Inverse folding.
């Protein structure tokens, strides 16, 4: 037969597992409340007092512990992931640019993307080069720099030679 503190322990574990999937430390604060409810079950068998203790513990955790934890662990520079991490990366051309659509294909970290040059891009003259870069002069295997992502298309330019 399970005792009351067993149930509180299961609630704490479920909330902590949920915290792994839901950001913001809200479920973690509720888990702290469940811990106080479990501790109160060691003192009294009255479920009303246990729920009051759990509620007070959760409220105090939301008011005091959550802001401290958010400031300590979730402040400062965030790490870009997914599409947000692509600008500045290099893409290798896997399919030449089509003269009609102005699009080609390129690979970044094993993912194949549609690539195109910016609509207002007229080429860039690098030091020591006589002509402007032209999308028609880009061949399969060349490396381009990602400027930004628009939906499922990467906007690219030739990398600067510095």
């Amino acid at each position: 037969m399970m005792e009351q503190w067993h149930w509180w322990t299961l609630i704490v574990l479920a909330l902590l597992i949920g915290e792994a999937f839901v950001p913001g430390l809200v479920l973690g604060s509720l888990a702290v409340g469940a811990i106080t409810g479990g501790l109160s079950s060691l003192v009294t068998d009255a479920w009303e007092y246990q729920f009051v203790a759990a509620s007070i513990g959760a409220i105090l955790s939301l008011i005091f512990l959550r802001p401290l934890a958010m400031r300590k662990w979730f402040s400062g520079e965030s790490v870009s992931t997914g599409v947000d991490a692509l600008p500045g990366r290099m893409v290798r051309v896997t399919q030449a640019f089509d003269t009609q659509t102005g699009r080609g294909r390129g690979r970044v970290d094993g993912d194949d993307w549609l690539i195109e040059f910016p609509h207002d891009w007229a080429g860039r003259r690098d030091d020591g080069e006589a002509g402007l870069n032209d999308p028609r002069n880009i061949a399969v295997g060349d490396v381009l720099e990602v400027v930004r992502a628009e939906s499922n298309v990467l906007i690219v330019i030739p990398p600067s030679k510095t």
